[in-house]
Amino acid sequence: MNIEIKLEDITNYAKGINVYIDGKVNAYPVGCEKFRGICLAWNDMLAGAHTMPAFGVSLDGDTRAALKEGVWAEFVFGCPYQCGGMSFEKLLVAVKGEWSGFNIVRYTAEKGYEGRCFYYSLQGNMKAFYDVLTAV
User: Fold this and answer.
1) 9: which residues sit within 8 A by CB, 6+ positions away?
2) In whole angstroms, how far apart are CA 20 and each of 17, 82, 113, 125?
3) Distance CA 66, CA 26 (A)
4) Euclidean distance between CA atoms 29 and 16, whole angstroms
5) H helix intervals, the chain
6) Is the pTM of this model over 0.90?
7) Does residue 14 register a pLDDT over 80?
8) Mean pLDDT for the stretch of residues 58-80
9) Beta 3-4 vs 71-83: how paired, if at all?
10) What gap in Å lies between CA 127 and CA 132, rounded to an integer?
11) How far apart are alpha carbons 81 and 10 in whole angstroms?
12) Which of 15, 17, 90, 110 has its CA 20 to 30 A from that of 35?
């Protein structure tokens, strides 16, 4: 049985964050300075945000192809968790500065990036989070 957590608490459980920029990935383990900065920016971005029903589902092949372009953040966990009965081992987000809402794609070893997503509607946009992810 997977441990139930709240989406707003994922930075407390993540063991690492993968940042994809145009298909190139950089991995930041828990405890490193970049990991902390990303988590702070994530939590700031979610201040006042609302979870809502997702606009769609993820198809593994399409999501893997999409990772080759743009900016993505992937929270990696050391074990399976679940939220609202939906399990995950990783959570993946496409990041565009002007967006004021976004899907969170779930990954499981069994199905990959396949299945229902979570969705956040923000009070602002993703610009500050985007800037942290893309800063060298």
Assistant:
1) none
2) 10, 24, 15, 19
3) 17
4) 4
5) 10-13, 33-46, 60-66, 127-134
6) yes
7) yes
8) 97
9) parallel
10) 9
11) 10
12) 110
**Which residue do the tokens 């997503």 mark?**
117
d(CA 3, CA 77): 12
pLDDT at 128: 98
Q: Which two tokens stand for residue 114?
A: 């396949």
Q: Do residues 132 and 38 make contact, with C-beta atoms less than 8 angstroms apart?
A: yes
Q: How far apart are CA 29 and CA 36, in angstroms?
A: 9
Distance CA 70, CA 47 (A): 24
The type of residue at 81 is: Y
Residue 124's pLDDT band, with cuts at 50, 70 and 90, is very high
Q: What does the block give as tokens for 136?
A: 């060298």
SS3 content of the chain, % helix, strand, coil (to 5): 25, 45, 30
φ/ψ of 127, rounded to 5, equals: -55, -50
Average pLDDT over residues 6-16: 96
> How many other C-beta atoms can be found within 10 angstroms of the C-beta atom of residue 24?
8
